[in-house]
Each structure stands twice: as structure tokens, then as C-alpha cells.
Amino acid sequence: MDQTAPQKGTVTQRAIEQIKAMIGEGRLEPGQRLPTERDLATQLGISRSSMREAIRALTVMGVLEARHGSGIYVTQLEAGDLLETFGVVADLSRGPRLVELLEVRRVLESTATALAAARITPDQLADVEKHLAAMNATDDPEEILSHDLAFHRTIALAAGNDTMAAILEGLSSRTFRARVWRGYQEEDAFARTRREHARIHRALAARDPEAARAAAAAHVGEVEEWLRAQLDE
Question: Which of 2, 48, 132, 215 has its CA 20 to 30 A from that of 16?
């Protein structure tokens, strides 16, 4: 026989793409309830088991949500929910792949910081300064880590681009940052990274996008160099 029966994964993937197309074309809106599994399977011409797998996959992706006793709904399609998998990638990546993620983060973080310099509110700037002061007041890596994450998260939100902020949140693996801070502690490099954070804050306070971009790129670039040195060892 020359013909091969289509693989189930292929059918399920087609169902996933068709449901995504229905959402993208506005036939299914955020918050709207999906037709029943049976009706949707009939509409798309696939088996109920394949439809069930497609719905399960889209639920894991954050596109759909199951409400007990009510049915399956399209989520609000918030960027943070849809991009949660970035966090998994960052937490599980090692070696050269982690360097690649840092390169992506350097590009996005420098752009976000430049945007923040033009858009940051006085309250957000005060929060950045608060976390900077807290980082400078302790040598405890856990406390520094917590305020470092909050420092960069506030800047990303101040950029005014929720999608970019969500991607950066995903790329900011707490596990990896903890390793960096412990390494900095062993190398007595806290002073250097504190200067880098202070330079970012000064650029934001001066409302200077290009200085902010350069300061953020240099800061993440230092982490890249540190990681490359660790790999070489």
C-alpha cells in the first residue's frame, strides 16, 4: 500500500492550529466558551480523542482554560500567561544554551530599559531606587537576588510593553540568577554589579534612553562574560 494513514499527532496538531485560527480570526473571542468537544470535533472533521488532546495542549499553553462544571473557555490571552514556558526554558537550560538566552535577554533588556527611561513614572522610579538601596544595604545573596529581580521587573513594566515584560520575566530565571549572585560573592564582585545597577538608575532618573540602553546592555553583557568564563573552566 502506497498510502499511509495520518499520524494521530498530525491530526491533533491540525486541530490545534484550527482552533488558534478561530481565535486569531475573531470567531472565538477571549473569555468565550468553546462549543462542546463533540460539536467542535464534528465541525473540524476529527475524532473526539484528537480534539481532547488538542484542547489539553492548548490548555497547557494558556490559550484555553477548563472551568469545572462549566466547560472550556478561551483565556484572556494575557502575554504573561502565554509566555510562561520561557521560564521553563530558562530554568532547564545549561551551558551554551544559557549563553544564547542571555544574548536574547541583553537585546530585550537594553531596549526595555531605553523605553523605560522615556516612560517611567515617578512612583516606578522610586521603586527602582528602593530596590537599588536594598541591594546596596546587604551582602546576603538571597536578599540581593530578591531585590535584583524586583529592580529589573519594575524597569520592564515601566517600558509600557506587556509582551516584552512577560518575555523578560520568563528569561529571568531565579535559579540562574541565584547562581550568578553566589558566584559574584565568591569573586568579591558585588561592588562592580552594584555600580552597574546604579548606572542604570542614573540613566533612568536623567530620562536618557541611550544611556539607559548602554547601561543595561553592559550589565547583562557582564553576566554573559561571567558565564562564558565559568564554561571555559
Answer: 2
